[in-house]
Amino acid sequence: MAGAALLAAAAALPFWLNRTQPYFLQLALNVLIVAVLALSWDLLARTGQLSLAHAAFFGLGAYTSALLTTRAGVPVVAGIVLGGLMATAVAAALGVLTLRLRGIYFAIATLAFSETLRVITKQLRFTGGSAGLVTPPLLPANLPAQYLVILGILLLAALTSELVNRSRWHFAFTAIRTNEEVAAVMGIDVVRFKVLAFAISAFFAGLTGAFYAHVFLFINPFEAYSLAISVGALVAPIFGGLYTTIGPLLGAVALRIGEETLRAALGSGFLIIYGLILAAVILYMPRGLLGLWTAAAARRHAGERGVTAPVSGNGQA
Amino acid sequence: MAIFGVLRSGLYSLASVGLALSVGVIGVVNFAHGEFLMLGAYLGYWLFASYGIDPLAAIPIGAVALFLLGGAVHRLGIQRVLRSPELNQMLLTFGISIFLQNLAIILWGGDPRTAAVGYKAQSVALGPFTVGFPQLVVFAVAMTLTLSLYAILGGSRIGKAMRAVAQNRVGASLIGIEVDRIYLLTFGLSTALAGMAGLMIALQLSTSPFIGLLYTLKAFAIIVMAGLGNITGVIYASLVLGLSEAFVEFYVPQGGGWAEGVFFVLILVVLLVRPRGLFR
Amino acid sequence: MSLLVLEDLMKAFGGLQAVGGLSLNVHAGEIFAMIGPNGAGKSTTFNLISGLFAPDHGRIVFDGKDITGAKPHERAHSGIGRTFQLMQPFHDMSVLENVMVGELFGHVVPKTLEAARRDAESVCALTGIDHLADRDVTGLGVADLKRLEVARALATHPRLLLLDEVMAGLTPTEARQAVASIRRVRDSGVTVLLIDHVMGSVRDLADRVAVLNFGKKIAEGSFEEVAHDPGVIEAYLGEEADGEIKPGG
């Protein structure tokens, strides 16, 4: 019920804002982009694979779509979908290659992969080099419509996240996250689930990247594969509450809006707040905002029932 | 070409050996390692620009400053996650890295700075080759420092204590080694080493807030090649990296740009083919 | 009828031959125990059977089918379940949810989550942890964690259950309860292969016993037979100095 009301409000937002404050509509659009990235990062994190380079798939989607629409005359909408699919395919391949890498090695490998993509994109003339590419627009000059598109993508991502959390996938992901070997012995096809998670996560990142390319009309390797994207995608869920749907959304909204205020004051150093928040969360509230909420709820329940309610659904990295 | 590779590898050794220490002794993969190097470089630039001190002469200052900073960071943050899951440690150091990098952007802007010492442009004849004088000096100093570290690890009491902790934390504490203190000292040492490497970079090249991540990744490549925790292998791995980059720069068209990606490729290849490292 | 056949299994780690030519034949419906001094290769054998390690040499045949190359999850689907010596509950999940993992991915897969939940609840009741169903797994005591391990493995509806040192650390009362539980499990049609050091429980439970030392089987038979085997006594000499394997520890 509350969800439906929220949804209606979110959908109505652009039409109201575009007349009153287009700047805020643009900000809302940016928030939604971060929200999709955060949610898709979290999806992968549920299997214990913490990627430090979500931007790799964002950029891959952006560049795939940009190249297809500018060089091959593919229509923009198709380009966006293909951008997502390309990211998916690459992620599936990378996922298979990195299966055996445990936590930190996996993170390093993703970072290396992202930077490699950036260097390759920068070097090749085909991709526009460091000068970047100009891209054809999606729904030109129609900010409300663009907003609704990314809202749609976010809804799809949120739906996927909820489906995962309410199905047997939740059990598989959580088991894999805790201990892959035990999960395998219990009958879970670890390879299949890990690669699937990677693929789905990358799909949304790629889709969003392609969307970004056709809304901001220009991409270059520095921005498309920027560390800021990866950082935002991982700090938001950690801050908001891992392994849930609401957590990454909460985190994305809070952080992106906070970032906006900091950008004005600090120029390009605004990312500093992400560093601070990440460090602070790890040190002092490893379960994120949602963890504080559920812990508080648990304490209230404990007072009522005399027994400690479980804190489940989100946990430490 | 080979000479350039070798000379550069000296700097890489110094830049990476601290991270190898942190991983080997404490077990923490410090994603912020390069940031300490970057801070050392800025320190060198500042000392030179304000007081005319040659970065090489400033090495002791840099070492102490970065040692203290590292110690503080360890005390305030890292120490608290030593018993947490590895991924928490990774995220914490990643957060520290983002913090320091952007702190530098805020304080000093994003433009590169260089310490233009007098002898920067001089060159020296080395047999049939001509090499830059600064490069040679940096190589000599870096190798000396790296080898001194090896001597300390091998010979001194502290060094032996560090090695003991690296091998067996519980055993080490059972024989009376204060493990927490060793962790603190080791971390400070690793950041000090990074800082010293940073000073040399200020001398040779320019510094910007972004070199931190670059050197962290290169250090990763080196310690992954050496095998995590293998400190002596760092020199060989640095040679591999230095020579590979030089090779690409010389023989691949537009090599300068491609060379940036060499260490990434090395990381990927080693992790996928021989995750235990090449030099175990 | 043989349910599990190990043919000349070998596994070495670096220079150490953990399992050096082990052959075993577990009959359907029996409780078979593997005992032996530490380092004898028992845990390695379990890891080979459940598929976490691949043998250097030899074959594993389960219910007539060669499973030597099968992946761990495939073996679970065929009906091999196991517990772990170092208890490994899944975090961020309640006790009931842990057991549901076994239900959802095991040998007999329920059609819906609801069905899985109901099945898991009955398994919890069977193993005596139903009062803990909604509890988070952190903070559970040793005995309850063991029961959870067994419940989770049972939830996979195994035909062969591998029990890895379930008796360790239990009080005598708990051990008696565990023995009774394991007997009930066998009576419900599950073949049990267990590793243990608690000789009293092994004597009470096992139909047949194999003794391993240095990766090889040095004796096989009933508990009484192996307890008096001179080779076995010698293998244990460092642990039991009075010429006989006495149940009691």
Radius of gyration of chain A: 20 Å
The parts of chain A where pLDDT drops under 50 for at least 5 residues are 304-317
Largest sheet entry of chain B: 2 strands, antiparallel
Q: How far is the first residue's CA from the last residue's CA of chain B?
A: 27 Å
The unreliable regions of chain B are: none
Percent range for β-strand residues of chain B:
under 5%
Radius of gyration of chain B: 18 Å
- Strand order within the widest sheet of chain B? 1-4
Tally the beta strands of chain B. 4
The figure for the number of domains of chain B is 1
> Total number of helical segments of chain B?
12
CATH domain topology of chain B: ABC transporter involved in vitamin B12 uptake, BtuC
What is the spatial order of strands in the main beta sheet of chain A?
1-2
Protein structure class of chain B: mainly alpha
Mean pLDDT metric of chain B? 82
Domains of chain A (count): 1
Distance, first to last CA of chain A = 31 Å
Biggest sheet details of chain A: 2 strands, antiparallel
Number of strands of chain A: 2
List the helices and strands and how they pair.
The complex is a heterotrimer of chains A (317), B (280) and C (249).
Chain A: H1 2-20, H2 22-45, H3 55-71, H4 76-97, H5 103-123, E1 133-134, H6 143-166, H7 168-178, H8 180-185, H9 190-216, E2 218-219, H10 221-224, H11 227-240, H12 246-266, H13 272-284, H14 288-305
Antiparallel strand pairs in A: 1-2
Helix pairs in contact in A: 1-2, 1-6, 2-6, 2-9, 2-11, 2-12, 3-4, 3-5, 3-9, 4-9, 6-7, 6-9, 11-12, 11-13, 11-14
Chain B: H1 2-26, H2 33-51, H3 59-76, H4 86-108, E1 113-114, E2 123-126, E3 129-132, H5 133-155, H6 157-167, H7 169-174, H8 179-204, E4 206-207, H9 211-226, H10 233-251, H11 255-259, H12 262-273
Antiparallel strand pairs in B: 1-4, 2-3
Helix pairs in contact in B: 1-5, 1-8, 1-9, 1-10, 2-3, 2-4, 2-8, 2-9, 3-8, 5-6, 5-8, 6-8, 9-10, 9-12
Chain C: E1 2-13, E2 16-27, E3 31-35, H1 42-50, E4 57-62, E5 65-66, H2 72-78, E6 80-82, H3 95-105, H4 113-127, H5 142-154, E7 160-164, H6 172-187, E8 191-195, H7 199-205, E9 208-213, E10 216-221, H8 223-227, H9 230-235
Parallel strand pairs in C: 3-8, 3-9, 6-7, 7-8
Antiparallel strand pairs in C: 1-2, 1-4, 4-5, 9-10
Helix pairs in contact in C: 3-4, 3-5, 4-5
